[in-house]
Amino acid sequence: MTSTPRAALLDDLVAANHILAGLGVLDGFGHVSVRDPEQPDRYLMSRSLAPELVSDDDIMAFDLASTPLAGDTRTPYLERFIHGEIYARRPDVQAVVHSHAPGVVPFAASSVPLRPIYHMGGFLGTGVPVFEIRERFGQTDMLVRNRAQGQALADALADRSVVLMRGHGFCAVGDSVPVAVFRAAYTQANAALQQQAIALGGSVSYLDEAEARQADATNRGVIARPWALWKARFHASANR
Predict the structure, then answer these.
(1) Closest CA to 12 of 162, 179, 161, 171
(2) pLDDT of residue 5
(3) What is the pLDDT of residues 68-123, one digit of tens each?
(4) Residue 120: CB partners within 8 Å, gap ≥ 6?
(5) Residues whose CB is less than 8 angstroms from the CB of residue 91 and which lie 6 or more positions away in sequence, other chains included
(6) Long-range contacts, stretch 7-12, CB < 8 angstroms, 24+ apart
(7) 79, 132, 135, 211: which one is catalytic?
(8) Is 79 an active-site residue?
(9) pLDDT for position 237
(10) Contact 68, 60 (CB under 8 A)
(11) Helix ranges restricted to H, 50-176
């Protein structure tokens, strides 16, 4: 069977679920989506399912109001509004990851900002904002349950690559599925290394903005290398 660009993208979306689960960025919760390349006012994401179990047949289509399309009555992720509102605000974003990775959560609850401590976290160099849901919605269960909350999250993200969510997790975005996956994975890795460096007790030297920008450009240029490895390790085995 001849693979079309759309079919290849759907395979990447399913692969992203398996990869992020395999790397421990997602577990039974969290989700990843991609903008529909043929209809940019739509996006694609699995039905409500643990990411490691996602297959091609689980993918649903949504408009940017996060309404399921084509009469699809399967149960969607509750927090799909994260994705729809980011795509609506950011035409440059083609993929979104939402994670509850434990190593990242402390930075959303602390006055210590998440900053790039090594070159793999260069995309963090423009700053990592924190979405504080209480500022606009008072006491909640911390979930993004509607468009207004999704819009507030997208506003907090602004033009950055990553936004933290107090008491919840984080979102990473990219102009492709591999870039969004890379950023989600290395947000987690950078957070772990930053905590280790802080625990040593001395001063910590972070990448400055120019270093981070150059590192990010270099990493984006070779992103096919980790993507191929991750896909072979976590996606190929899932398809056997």
Answers:
(1) 179
(2) 85
(3) 999 999 999 999 999 999 999 999 999 999 999 999 999 999 999 999 999 999 99
(4) 186, 189, 190, 215, 219
(5) 40
(6) 9/34, 9/37, 9/44, 9/177, 10/44, 10/56, 10/59, 11/56, 11/235, 12/177, 12/178
(7) 79
(8) yes
(9) 65
(10) yes
(11) 81-89, 105-109, 134-137, 147-157
Domain residue ranges of the chain, discontinuous segments joined by +: 5-238
Tell me which of 3.10.180.10, 2.40.30.260, 3.40.225.10, 3.40.50.10540 is the CATH number of domain 5-238.
Answer: 3.40.225.10
The overall pTM is greater than 0.90: yes
For residues 197 and 203, give the distance between their C-alpha atoms in angstroms, rounded to a whole number.
Answer: 9
Sign of the Cα torsion 133, 192, 233, 160 reads: positive
Closest to 167 (Cα-Cα) out of 141, 146, 185, 196:
141
Predicted confidence band of residue 239 (pLDDT cuts 50, 70, 90): low
Q: How far apart are CA 29 and CA 187, in angstroms?
A: 17
Given a contact cutoff of 8 angstroms between Cβ atoms, the answer to whether 190 and 117 are in contact is yes
The residue count of the chain comes to 240
The first and second tokens of residue 145, run together, are: 């349950």
